[in-house]
């Protein structure tokens, strides 16, 4: 258990008390009753303050031991798909949502990868957004974060711009956002935005990335991407008819990892898959049964150097043949 002093900006007596309670409980191992007696408060308040500290991300849990079963799965996936490093998060519920466990594992990894002088490209989605509480931020010099696609106006917390901004804030870095929708009405509008509104310069930064943090979107159900209004149910069905199994940054791909021949792909404001493949460190963070074939295709097309997923997804991917 780690109490993150930098996460606590002490501005009031209430904040001082919460920080002291968290320290005594997690660092000095006092019982809740001992803390209540020592600070002259009741035990119920101690419980509430501890819960509030966790909610505010002032306390983080780190587990350093490894599980041999997960290690075996990781090695098998690395060999099966030719990936440099695989991290598999334990997850026993075959029908459950693995987002939180994948995010926790990815947060620890991301914390270890970041350092001063980096240019980091970030995608979007629920899994990436959920990594934020698990990332140990730091004040890094000359640290830049580039959003790799346009905005999703109705996605609320999962908006690409919001994630990129919060991620940059964690490391006291600069954020570069794409001030345009993720999907526009025509290829002509896309061209005009890129060439006349300065967006091309943002995407050119993708040629200088050190790390890209990416997730995969499935297409078999009405997930976040399709509820935003940019892609309708008719679009989804049309993309599936064209062979799409999912997307990377709204680049819709087929089961072999190739861009599908569909007009939506000509209207997307995002970094191309070709540019992504040139990034030295490509981290793919995703899982879940609805994304299985999209993940297999994505591994083929972006060739991640690191892949973070869950136990159930890892086992299912091993049953699939890699794309030739």
Automatic annotation (TrEMBL):
This protein's UniProt keywords: DNA-binding, Transcription, Transcription regulation
Transmembrane feature ranges: none
Domain Sugar-binding: 67-318
UniProt cross-references to Gene3D superfamilies, sorted A to Z: 3.40.50.1360, Homeodomain-like
GO MF: carbohydrate binding; DNA binding
Alphabetized SUPFAM superfamilies for the sequence: NagB/RpiA/CoA transferase-like
Lineage: superkingdom: Bacteria
Family to which the UniProt record says this protein belongs: Belongs to the SorC transcriptional regulatory family.
UniProt-recorded name of the protein: Sugar-binding transcriptional regulator
